[in-house]
Amino acid sequence: MGYYSQFDYNIKNAKVALDKITEIETLFSNDNNEDVSGFYNVSLEVDAENYLISINPIEYTRKFYDDRFFAEKLSEAIINGEVRLYFTGEDGEKWGYIVTPNSVKEITTIWVSMDELPYVTQFLNSIRNK
């Protein structure tokens, strides 16, 4: 038995180094690499100006035990911009990563009512401005 999760992502103007993209695809195509699972045989689509436009695993629902490893490798390929990786576990748990050049930050969800949202937003803005 294993822990299945659903994968999604959002790309925000992420320019990448093509040689690093090739390295990632090669690394994740190696089925002998024990660090690779859900992102096995992932393909990364890049446009003519070297901007990442899609992340294509074989399936979007898998055992993504390599989520952090993939995020770290992707951070090495990003020159500027960011990619957000989102996961929803079979039990409903949600987590993810903000991936920028050589940086991976863990993110999680916090559920608030629409009535609470203005107060949460105000609080977050106040601590950002310090």
* Overall shape: globular
Question: What letter string, H or E per element, gives the SSE order?
Answer: EHEEEHEEEH
Mean of pLDDT: 94
> What's the story with the biggest beta sheet?
5 strands, antiparallel
Strand content: 35-45%
Q: Bin the helical content.
A: 25-40%
As for the number of domains, it is: 1
| CA-atom Rg in angstroms | 16 Å
- SSE class: alpha+beta
- CA distance, first residue to last residue: 47 Å
Determine the number of helices (DSSP H or I, runs of at least 4 residues). 3
Low-confidence runs of at least 5 consecutive residues: none
Strand order of the largest sheet: 4-1-5-6-7
What does this molecule look like?
The chain has helices spanning 18-27, 67-77, 117-128; strands spanning 5-16, 43-46, 52-56, 61-62, 78-89, 94-100, 103-108. It is α+β, with helices and mostly antiparallel strands and 130 residues long. The chain has one domain (5-128). It has a 5-stranded antiparallel β-sheet. A hairpin with a 5-residue loop joins strand 2 and strand 3 (52-56). The radius of gyration is 16 Å and the shape is globular. The chain starts with a strand and ends with a helix. The model has no long low-confidence stretch (mean pLDDT 94).
What attributes does this structure have?
single chain; alpha+beta; two-stranded antiparallel sheet; 130 residues; five-stranded antiparallel beta sheet; 7 strands
Q: What's the SSE blueprint?
A:
Layout: E1 5-16, H1 18-27, E2 43-46, E3 52-56, E4 61-62, H2 67-77, E5 78-89, E6 94-100, E7 103-108, H3 117-128
Antiparallel strand pairs: 1-4, 1-5, 2-3, 5-6, 6-7
